[in-house]
Structures are given as structure tokens and as C-alpha cells.
Write a structure and sequence with these properties.
Elements lengths: L1 H11 L13 H4 L2 H58 L2 H11 L7
Length: 109
Amino acid sequence: MQHAIVAFLSAAATPTPTPSPSEVDPDIVTPGVVGFVVTAFIAIAVILLVWDMMRRIRRGRVRADIQEELDAEAQAARATEATEVDDERIDPADDETRGDDAGGPAPKR
């Protein structure tokens, strides 16, 4: 029984040759000049977009660096101003007179 099935399948699976296709027109299957122009246009557009994006990123980065420097300078100026104000409020003469009057060191604040 198996031999009959194998014989039937091998006979059914025998390929029959088909006529060879005719010559394909190369103008139909190749992109040609139009395809090259479109591809070149897309490549140039992508290059210009990347160039513009990098310029904008660089500009933003420089602006952020300048802003950080200005913020640091402003913070340093505020810290210096606060230190100068604190120094003005301390009067060492008051501490010395209190210490002498009390007969001991000046009290801590």
C-alpha cells in the first residue's frame, strides 16, 4: 500500500516545464533617472534637516551654558552681599565691653 502512495505522489509531484517568460523591458523594472533624482532629493533634504537640527541644538546648549554662568554669578553676588551684611552687623566692641563688665568672657549668642 505504501508503494502505491509513494508512486502516486512521485508521479503527481513531477513538475511540468512552463514556457520561459519573454524578455523583460529594463525601463519598466529599473527606477531610471527619475528614481535617482528622487533619491538624491531625499538624501539632500535629510542632510539639510540634520544640519539645521544640530545648529539649533548647539545654539540651545550655548544659551543654557550662558544662563548657568549668569545664574552662578548672581548667586555668588548674593552670597557676597549676604556675607558683607552679616559682617556689618557684628560689632566686636560690644562683645569686649560686655565681657569686661561681667568679669568673664562674653556670652555666646
